[in-house]
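Worked Example 4.2. Consider the chain below.
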Amino acid sequence: MPVVRSSEGVVHEIHGARFVSYASPLRGSRELCAWRGEIPAGTRAPAHTVDREEIFHLLAGELLMTLDDRTERIAPGDTVIVTPGTTLTVENPTDDTAVSWVTTSIGLRAKLADGTTLAPPWAN
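Applying the procedure from the previous section yields the following structure tokens:
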């Protein structure tokens, strides 16, 4: 039984946010990736379009999440289902770090508005 201890998360930082990876092919996962996202106060991630479904669950803090043209304020315990082809923007307008748990299938790609494609290591 693969067990990944909290101290064994692999840390990645991009666009002012921190992603701590716990489940990925490098950890023995065959289908899913999962990570903790830490979005500091005042951070606004660039808009990006995802090619796989993501399940985004907020653990602490508050966020504004925009899916295509619809913005929702989410609070701890809220879950957002991001479908493939959706353009996503995440913003933390508060004074506290927001913490989330995100799950997706292996191989996620995200396309930025400038056409750049990212293959985030925490989701591959």
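The chain has one domain: 6-123. The chain is about 0% helix and 50% strand. Compare this with Example 4.1 before moving on.
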